[in-house]
Amino acid sequence: MRLILLGPPGAGKGTQAERLVSAHELLHLSTGDMLRAAVAAESELGVKAKGFMDAGELVPAELVCALVAERLRAVEDGQGYLLDGFPRNEAQAVALHADVGDDAIDCVVHMKLDDEEIVQRLLKRGRKDDTEEVIRNRIKVYGEETSPLIAFYEQRGLLRTVDALGTIDDVAGRIAEAIAGCGQVGAS
Ligand code: B4P
């Protein structure tokens, strides 16, 4: 199974990704985690990415796409994967499909959550980029840059929208239902 988790900041992509990768033995590619590791290691990429992340902006596509392409090229045939937080705009989606092909994704799970719940969850999480001002900017960037991907994947028949409000178990149950049959021949 080859999945994308799409949703606003704080929708719980990372939280649900952990469950999905262990249930389906998927390779987990989280661009947020990869970028945070690069920042912590003070690598060339990390130094370039840090300012964008601290401000709640997207890291430039060429940096993120190179990172993901390198990992995806190393994926063995038949290995399922989960892209968590990537692609985050149309340029990244186009780059992804140019690299791995149009049929390299079976389903896109769109986790839907309203802005006030996002702010409350992220203030509670308290990561360095979880101040109210930065969270509101990330919500704005999501609306402008990432949300057009909902239509992009809907047109390709891949989108499954799930309500991300409720307990972690509730949301996991909805995702399990939404992806049942994904990646099987004849699945719609
Ligand atoms: P990410 O690391 O992707 O993080 P996120 O969107 O903030 O959070 P996520 O949706 O994973 O929520 P989580 O499970 O933690 O991005 C961080 C930054 O990296 C971006 O702003 C950007 O700068 C950069 N970046 C990443 N990918 C990029 C890309 N492709 N291109 C350019 N830049 C990129 O859950 C949030 C909180 O809610 C947690 O505390 C969790 O415990 C809680 N929670 C989860 N589910 C819950 C539930 N059902 N009920 C209550 N609380 C819940």
Overview of this protein structure:
This protein is α/β, with parallel strands linked by helices. The protein has a single domain, classed as 3-Layer(aba) Sandwich (Rossmann fold), CATH 3.40.50. Helix content is 55%, strand content 13%. It contains nine helices and five strands, in the order βαβαααβαβαααβα. The chain has helices at 13-24, 31-40, 44-55, 61-73, 90-100, 115-125, 132-146, 148-155, 168-179; strands at 2-6, 27-30, 81-84, 107-112, 159-163. A five-stranded parallel β-sheet has the order 2-3-1-4-5, sandwiched between helices. Helix 2 (31-40) crosses helix 3 (44-55), helix 4 (61-73) runs parallel beside helix 5 (90-100) and helix 6 packs across helix 7 (132-146). The longest helix has 15 residues, at 132-146. The radius of gyration is 16 Å and the shape is globular. It binds BIS(adenosine)-5'-tetraphosphate. BIS(adenosine)-5'-tetraphosphate (B4P) binds at residues 7, 9-15, 31-32, 35, 52-53, 56, 58-59, 64, 85-86, 88, 92, 121, 125, 138, 166-168, 171. The site of BIS(adenosine)-5'-tetraphosphate has 28 residues, from helix 1, helix 2, helix 3, helix 6 and helix 9.
Q: Strand fraction band?
A: 5-15%
| Percent of residues in helices | 55-70%
What is the C-level CATH assignment?
Alpha Beta
Structural class from helices and strands?
Answer: alpha/beta
- Annotated CATH homologous superfamily: P-loop containing nucleotide triphosphate hydrolases
Oligomer: single chain
Q: Spans with pLDDT under 50 lasting ≥5 residues? A: none
Please tally the helical runs, counting DSSP H or I stretches of 4 or more residues.
Answer: 9
CATH topology label: Rossmann fold
How would you state the average pLDDT, rounded? 94
Number of domains: 1
Radius of gyration, whole Å: 16 Å
Described by the principal axes of the CA atoms, the overall outline is globular
Order of strands, widest sheet: 2-3-1-4-5
Distinct ligands, ions and cofactors found in the model = BIS(adenosine)-5'-tetraphosphate
Count the E strands. 5
Q: Tell me what the CATH architecture is.
A: 3-Layer(aba) Sandwich
Secondary-structure element order, N to C: EHEHHHEHEHHHEH
